[in-house]
Amino acid sequence: MQNSATLEYDYSIAKLFLYSTMAFGFIGMLIGVVLAFELAFPDLNYIAGEYGIFGRLRPLHTNGVIYGFTLSGIWAAWYYLGQRVLKITYHQHPFLKFIGYLHFWLYIVLLILAVISLLAGLTQSKEYAELIWPLDILVVVVWVLWGVSMFGSMGVRREKTIYISLWYFIATFTAISVLYIFNNLAIPTYFVAGMGSFWHSISMYAGSNDAMIQWWWGHNAVAFVLTSGIIGIIYYFLPKESGQPIFSYKLTLFSFWSLMFVYIWAGGHHVIYSTVPDWVQTLGSVFSVILILPSWGTAINMLLTMRGQWHQLKESPLIKFLVLASTFYMLATLEGPIQAIKSVNALAHFTDWIIGHVHDGVLGWVGFTIIAACYHMLPRMYKREIYSKKIMDIQFWIMTIGIVLYFSSMWIAGITQGMMWRDVDQYGNLTYQFIDTVKELHPYYLIRSIGGTMYLLGFIMFIYNVVMTITASKELDREPNYASPMAS
């Protein structure tokens, strides 16, 4: 049998997902910048007719970033690290390679159809679950193919231990499978009533029940795509890149199981002060606050992995990305529970503070982790040095400043909104009309647009660095051990 140290890993599928990570990251972020400017300058909504308005583009932005950029990054990491931690290679398992290719190409077809349908205004009008019913079926097929790849690989593994990253990937697969199917149960009206559009459907649930099921799904799309999938990535790439072992496996066990148990019940905080039962709202608030423990447990585990090695922050931009990603994770998972406290939620709900919270998590935690993972994989997949360390460093600072401008402007805007909406005069009448808040927030919307543009510029630099690494960088005669050698 071939020794695991001499295995020749097959990165062909990981490379395809790397390309889609860059493509859908750029598309999703570009649309996000367009939307930010549309909010700052509303006349921009009408330049492209109905296809350029906020309502058409916003689902494209969220779906493109969550299901295009983020899932592509998670799956690029899976098809890279899965072979390595399980000590298998797709050269020896052609069926798994076939499943991987089928997974990728059906996924690309799904994303293209999603772009077309959402741009055409075909939607179920459910947050993070906008796709029409035929595409929901295709989503399930794509998801099952990932499961076949993952569990099939584990079934033929040569390494007995299932590494931490795979725990989180299994959790992502299992939770999303259940949540997505239950939330998207629907009745196509054309087949049942013989009327309406072929694409139209109505939810199996009604009223408050629909809201509860929707946010059971909606918040856990964040939990099990933007959180557990990304934790799976950082648990592999930070130790590999730094050359340091994980700080504590006991802390890993605590964080994993408590995160799995607690996160699933936190979605109720999206329906506070609504018509859903009060116990559901309270449950959502309580479990959201408890979430600080497993979330910070993971982030602290990452940061303490760097103990005694903080000099690497000066030496490696890649380490800077990973360390700051963990820091943004701590920030976002403190901010979210605070917003879920009922008294705070009364001020924060429906304001731009929520938008700031989402984006310091996605841009800082998710974006930085995926970018760092791609930079780590590049020299090993293509056997070439990273093209430019200097570009990485400039990219890091541009994107970091962009994030700070983004979330700080949205914090101020959100709290300003909340205070103006609640302000009353001596007779109990509202002091401000809604349009007053819109006018007041214009400077902050402009700052948000500039911050988003800076992040997009950094991502374009990332794409350039990746392309130049693949096509024009110095070839390596052997794989780097951990910290990637980089040209200046």
UniProtKB/TrEMBL annotation:
- The residues listed in the UniProt record as binding heme b 1; low-spin, with positions renumbered to this chain, are 61, 359
Gene3D superfamilies, A to Z: Cytochrome c oxidase-like, subunit I domain (1.20.210.10)
Name the pathway: Energy metabolism; oxidative phosphorylation
Gene Ontology process terms (BP): aerobic respiration; electron transport coupled proton transport; respiratory electron transport chain
One of the record's GO cellular component terms:
plasma membrane
What's one Pfam family the UniProt record gives for this protein? COX1
The annotated topology with respect to the bilayer is:
Multi-pass membrane protein
Could you tell me what reaction this enzyme catalyses? Answer: 4 Fe(II)-[cytochrome c] + O2 + 8 H(+)(in) = 4 Fe(III)-[cytochrome c] + 2 H2O + 4 H(+)(out)
Matching SUPFAM superfamilies:
Cytochrome c oxidase subunit I-like
Report the family membership: Belongs to the heme-copper respiratory oxidase family.
Q: What is this protein called?
A: cytochrome-c oxidase
Q: Which gene encodes it?
A: ccoN
